[in-house]
Specification:
five-stranded antiparallel β-sheet, 5 strands, alpha+beta, Beta-Lactamase, elongated, 2 domains, 7 helices, single chain
Length: about 210
């Protein structure tokens, strides 16, 4: 029995160290000893607990049909939220240890808040009409991505036939009137410049 628990504990320690290393610095893994009701091991201590502290297992009940609890949310000592799961490691008839994986979500919440602030549309101003009235590249981009959206595809997924149809539609939209527009469109569509001009010649020949 003791040997079984020793090998089980050694395995859980390796798992705890591995998880903590893989998700460092945001994950803490705590092993609770069910028999003693104490904290037996901590990998990447984020909660400032100590080995031998009371594990607070009085309210927890695990059976063979409930090996996993969570994820659930709790508050760490620094006021930052953590998402946790508890996994019961079975002994003979009951859990020998409980492995708790605690993910500190503070770094992700900070990143989310920073992105929301950075991408906030309330700080944007309309483009100056006179400055951008001849912005042919933006007009091509707008038409191109609206065309792709209607086709329910993506720029990277366009096949050669779709690219040809897109060149035709861009020509009908007047996209090739601007100087160097053919080079720009060829670059965006990952086509050779000669291929784009070939498509344009075919359009012209068909119109004759």
């Amino acid at each position: 029995m003791a040997d079984n628990h020793d090998s089980q504990f050694a395995l859980l320690k390796s798992i705890a160290d591995g998880l903590a290393a893989l998700f460092f610095p945001s994950v803490e893994v705590v092993i609770h000893n069910v028999t003693t009701g104490k904290v037996a091991y901590i990998a990447n201590n984020l909660s400032k607990r100590n080995l031998g502290d009371d594990a607070g297992l009085d309210e927890m009940e695990f059976n063979e049909f409930e090996r996993l609890s969570g994820p659930y949310e709790k508050l760490n000592w620094d006021g930052k939220k953590m998402r946790s799961i508890s996994i019961a490691s079975a002994g003979e008839g009951k859990a020998g240890y409980i492995l708790c994986v605690n993910l500190s979500t503070g770094i992700f919440e900070d990143a989310k808040n920073a992105l929301e602030l950075f991408l906030s549309v309330t700080r944007l101003q309309p483009q100056p009409a006179e400055l951008f009235k001849d912005d042919w590249q933006e007009k091509i981009n707008t038409f191109l991505h609206e065309w792709i959206r209607k086709q329910n595809t993506s720029l990277a997924s366009l096949n050669r036939e779709q690219k040809k149809r897109l060149v035709v539609d861009l020509q009908q939209e007047g996209a090739f009137r601007a100087k160097n527009s053919a080079d720009y469109i060829a670059s965006v569509l990952s086509l050779g410049r000669t291929t784009v001009y070939k498509y344009l010649r075919e359009i012209k020949d068909n119109d004759v």
